[in-house]
Automatic annotation (TrEMBL):
Matching Pfam families: ADH_N, ADH_zinc_N
Lineage top rank: taxon: Eukaryota
InterPro entries, alphabetized: ADH-like_C, ADH-like_N, ADH_Zn_CS, ER, GroES-like_sf, NAD(P)-bd_dom_sf, SDH-like
Domain annotation Enoyl reductase (ER): ranges: 28-365
Cofactor(s), by name: Zn(2+)
Keyword Oxidoreductase found: yes
UniProt-recorded name of the protein: Sorbitol dehydrogenase
UniProt keyword annotations, A-Z: Metal-binding, NAD, Oxidoreductase, Zinc
Stated family: Belongs to the zinc-containing alcohol dehydrogenase family.
Molecular function GO labels: oxidoreductase activity, acting on the CH-OH group of donors, NAD or NADP as acceptor; zinc ion binding
Amino acid sequence: MGKGGMSHGNVGEGKDGEEENMAAWLLGVNNLKILPFKLPTLGPHDARIRMKAVGICGSDVHYLKEMKLADFVVTEPMVIGHECAGVVEEVGSEVKHLAPGDRVAIEPGISCWRCALCKEGRYNLCPEMKFFATPPVHGSLANQIVHPADLCFKLPDNVSLEEGAMCEPLSVGVHACRRANVGPETNVLVMGAGPIGLVTMLSARAFGSPRVVIVDVDDHRLSVAKELGADETIKVSTNINDVSAEVEQIKKAMGAGIDITFDCAGFTKTMSTALGATLSGGKVCLVGLGHTEMTVPLAPAAVREVDVVGVFRYKNTWPLCIEFLRSGKIDVKPLITHRFGFSQKEVEEAFETSARGGNAIKVMFNL
């Protein structure tokens, strides 16, 4: 897990006299078991972290239900989880900025730092990225992990460990807003009020957007979005034939031109709506990846010079996320709707709760 540990060869027993490290292993479809997990050796630039808060992401649920996500296939047992924060237990000999007892939020992706993309600063696109709970790399739903210390970020006293774990989904919204250049003069539309849609909405507001409208098919999620500060919420259908009418409804609700649209669902209908609603010269930022392939009205958007911007994970976002949380510009606490401990029964219940959806937004483990 830590340091990009691969799936094979990492189920192990603790040494005599030492606490046995346990983790939630994905063994098959709908099959999660808490089993021993042998930690890798602590390197000079690493930190050993005791996990305290781990959130469940939609990708975790997808792996549990399908054993695959896009081109990533789980072919052998894998530790799940990647949204995490914890307390430093031990640091390597060359680590100067952390000490045992420090509370840290953890960035889960380890890039190679050697390829052209890494050297350009776009390390999120590194082809050799080792990312928690993306096969064959282990995740972080465990008692302890070992991870590069430079990817562990100290939390201020007024930011909780749960909030620290929320830096991972929040980073997606922050990176999307950077990619789209959100600012005080950009009105924002968000398609989808799930966890990523909500953190994108919060990020857009923190970046200064004066007006944010969010749409979804679910009344409860829209009510949460309204409570979190959306200027307007609009319930839409799943019927592709409703796009034209809904575009007009959205434009009316915004009351001004829509400069940037974030599609946080990534379906044919949401992308078609985004392209139609965004003003000429604006941007559509594709954040969600619901459909791998879509049939959308691209030519009409192209002749209006609507730019389509891709988003993949994030880069250099943790310091800004932590500052947004410290300053109160963003409050992610209302997104955490369910909490579970780290027992076999609770792990199963937590994933069932997340998979059901309903009123669950973010399900969090407290270890």
